[in-house]
Amino acid sequence: MTEWKDEILQGMAAGNEVRFFVAYTKNLVEEARRIHETGPIVTAALGRSLTAGAMMGAMCKNETDVLTLQISGDGPLGGITVTADAHSRVKGLPKVKDVFLPANKSGHLNVGGAIGRGVLRVIRDIGLKEPYVGQTELVSGEIAEDLTYYFAASDQIPTSVGLGVLLSKENRVEHAGGFIIQLLPFATEGTIRWLEEVLEGVHSVTEYFADGYSAEDLVHVLLGADAVIERRITPEYHCDCSRSRVEKALISIGRKELEGMISDGEPVTLHCDFCNTDYTFSIEELKDLMKKL
């Protein structure tokens, strides 16, 4: 099986009338599967969401911007939260680890049935007093179609989103990736028709990867030989929790609560769900935190 590094390619095509992001994300999706110990359907849903988040993170204008995708549905999966920064470092959390459903009508993992009906929220924290929140209803629960609708309805940007995760029989991630292709406001009717015809022939992103196409190959398959790659980004699964941040969180709860923990006489353990890491503080360490108040 062909091995590539994870990367996001950003660029322009069709005489600068089209903007694109094409991603290969096998390794970060496999890392997420390993951390959360997810079953096949949840791995596919989480992987698609992480891939989308990584590409949308690359759209951020400022280094400190943070983007959050929240998918909430009435299906057995319940929902997924993904957070990304401007460097395409992402982390994600599904509400459940595993879901058991029969395959969908096309014979694939039934991500749409697992998520069900609900809403997609995109929260952009760009350093203002309040973050920008965009919300649309889920169209299918398959995530790519839901994001395509979100960009059109909330951002008013004609966009096509493709996402995919291919799993082995052992539930390991063999390939993962996707694309976001956007028409710019001055795109001509000819460019619009050309792009529609191209996208009609695209059914599965991961089929291209399984056939040996790289992310760069996929750029030119989708957008032609004259597509220009302007930026290469290395996405990764990255949780920004740390012991020092947890210490600050403990200090912030106040003297009374810390005194209560100390009087209990037992070490305190705090758990980060995004990276499945425990931070344990002994009684002596809690007393040291008290001194910092």
Description:
The protein is α+β, with helices and mostly antiparallel strands and 293 residues long. 34% of the residues lie in helices and 30% in strands. It is built from ten helices and 13 strands. It has helices spanning 26-36, 40-57, 111-115, 144-153, 189-200, 205-210, 215-223, 243-252, 255-264, 283-292, and strands spanning 7-13, 18-24, 66-73, 79-85, 89-94, 118-125, 132-137, 159-167, 173-183, 228-233, 236-237, 268-272, 277-281. The strands form three sheets. The chain has a six-stranded mixed sheet with strand order 7-6-3-4-5-11, with helices on one face. A five-stranded antiparallel sheet has the order 8-9-2-1-10, with helices on both faces. Strands 12-13 form a two-stranded antiparallel ribbon. The longest helix is centred in the N-terminal third of the chain and has 18 residues, at 40-57. The radius of gyration is 21 Å and the shape is globular. It starts with 6 loop residues before the first strand and ends with a helix. 38% of the residues are buried. The mean pLDDT is 93.
